[in-house]
Design brief:
Layout lengths: L2 E5 L2 E4 H17 L7 E5 L2 H14 L2 E4 L6 H11 L3 E5 L13 E5 L5 E5 L14 E5 L7 E5 L1 H15 L6 E4 L6 H13 L2 E4 L5 H10 L4 E5 H11 L10 E5 L5 H9 L4 E5 L9 E2 L11 E2 L4 E5 L12 E6 L6 E2 L3 H7 E2 L2 E10 L5 E5 L5 E3 L2 E3 L1 H9 L4 E11 L3 E10 L3 H9 L10 E4 L19
Parallel strand pairs: 1-11, 3-4, 3-5, 4-8, 5-6, 10-11, 10-12, 12-13, 13-14, 26-27
Antiparallel strand pairs: 1-2, 6-7, 8-9, 9-19, 14-15, 15-16, 17-18, 18-21, 20-21, 21-22, 23-24, 25-26
Helix pairs in contact: 1-2, 4-5, 6-7
Length: 461
């Protein structure tokens, strides 16, 4: 009987996981969860996986919270989404005080659900049974929840399996958190193939190296900096024969890194994707030429268009747009933002690329201002909004700078009378730790273009 979930050496079979999911659905319904509502989820990996599979049976949608967010950020998402239940665990309670707008259901250390606080409002209709709402800031700095149906994730899983293969013998190492879109995508892919998900609650290159050698890992998802750190730990050790796919996304993957990994036998597959498309959009399968572009997943249409929305000429640069079954339904309770992003069935990504003569996609710039720091997305506009809310800051700009350990880290430039220490403490109280700039520099003025747009690429120049 194949494993479904392996966490800290403890394995659960597929019949066992399905039974656990049924138990969760029954327990939550008995404690007041109504079909059709949206539940906020702040749970450890094993409990989250069971709830994720229970959600369709319960008829509930899930607001998937990132536990690394600051309390104020979590509170914003809870209030903005309009939930009335927060689900957390006694082992790792959410850092949020009781609130009259929502109740709390808590999983105790024995695995039983307890009603801690009663909700202060009636149930409202959610985005659909089994749907996930994942907040992303995009390029506007205002977080908004992308609504991804279970069908969207399943469509993406089928497409990925067609391009890259899938088997019930697969063992997929998830060393990125399950609350990320990439983590959820792994759960769905493994469910579709009845394969195993090996969960590491946090990324540790030494633990990943051990798992590659000792746990029969066939697939692993990483960002470029994670792959760099795993190679550093392993030195000249070659990839084990069991490893069939190293999916590398989250931003550009340096050619030198791919060369080094491939020379040691790692089956690297650079990937382009985004939350609004259920993670994966285009991938270059292992073994292809380095200069070859990324292949759109079967069933997904990928185009590059000019500023007027017309299909760009071959090899011309433009905005990448995507159409297919794995797209989000829209942004939760954000009709205007949805209309801007989804037009005539196409998702306009804001990313820049070109289509090669062979029909493959070359991504030239991921949402140009996005900072990928240790696998986490940091949106400069969101950090800037916090900085300019300080009474002694008039303007602020944030950009990424290379970092040996994290790949990139955010740095801030500001106009005003605040001190760097003041701003660091101010940000630490309002932002997740990975979003807090590691450097603050006071300047006389920020670089701006003719129309007044902040030129983040010239910050610090």
């Amino acid at each position: 009987m194949s494993d479904a979930l392996v966490i800290d050496g403890s394995a659960l079979s597929w019949p066992g996981l399905r039974a656990r999911a049924r138990e969760v659905a029954v327990a939550l319904a008995a404690r007041g969860v109504e079909p059709g509502e949206l539940l906020a989820v702040h749970l450890p990996s094993a409990a989250f996986a069971a709830l994720f599979h229970a959600a369709p049976q319960l008829g509930a949608g899930l607001l998937v919270l990132n536990p690394r967010l600051a309390p104020g950020e979590l509170a914003f998402q809870l209030e903005d989404a309009g939930v009335r239940w927060l689900l957390d665990a006694e082992a790792s309670p959410a850092p949020l005080p009781p609130h009259p707008a929502w109740g709390r259901l808590r999983l105790d250390r024995e695995g039983a659900w307890k009603r801690i606080d009663l909700p202060g409002k009636p149930a409202t209709r959610g985005p659909g049974a089994g749907a996930s709402v994942l907040y992303t800031s995009g390029t506007t700095g205002r977080p908004k929840g992308a609504v991804l149906s279970r069908a969207a994730f399943e469509s993406g899983a089928r497409a990925a399996a067609t391009l890259l293969g899938a088997s019930s013998r697969d063992r997929w190492l998830a060393c990125m958190p399950l609350f990320h879109v990439g983590g959820i995508a792994i759960l769905v892919r493994c469910a579709a193939a009845e394969a195993a998900t090996i969960v590491h609650p946090r990324f540790d290159p030494e633990r990943v190296s051990h798992a590659l050698d000792r746990e029969g890992v066939s697939h692993v998802s990483l960002v470029a900096n994670m792959l760099e750190r795993v190679l550093a730990v392993r030195g000249e050790a070659r990839a084990p024969s069991s490893l069939r796919l190293v999916l590398v996304g989250g931003g550009p993957v340096p050619d030198d890194l791919i060369h080094r990994a491939c020379a040691l036998g790692y089956p690297v597959a650079p990937t382009y994707g985004l939350t609004e498309a259920a993670s994966q959009v285009a991938t270059r399968p292992p073994g292809r030429a380095l200069g070859e572009g990324l292949h759109p997943l079967p069933g997904l249409e990928v185009e590059v268009v000019d500023e007027l929305g017309r299909t760009a000429q071959p090899a011309s640069e433009g905005e990448i747009r995507v159409r297919g079954g794995s797209l989000m339904d829209g942004y939760w309770r954000r009709p205007e933002a949805t209309e801007r992003a989804l037009r005539d069935g196409w998702l306009y990504t804001g990313d820049i690329g070109r289509i090669g003569a062979d029909g493959t996609l070359h991504v030239l710039d991921r949402r140009s201002d996005l900072i990928v720091s240790g696998g986490e997305n940091v949106y400069p506009a969101e950090v800037e909004a916090v900085l300019v809310s300080h009474p002694r800051v008039g303007e602020a700009g944030v950009a990424g700078r290379p970092d040996e350990r994290f790949g990139m880290r955010p740095h801030a430039w500001f106009v005003g009378r605040a001190t760097p220490d003041e701003l660091r403490h101010f940000c630490e109280a309002r932002l997740a730790r990975y979003k807090v700039p590691v450097g603050f520099e006071r300047v006389e003025a920020l670089p701006r273009g003719p129309a007044g747009k902040l030129l983040r690429s010239r910050l610090g120049a």
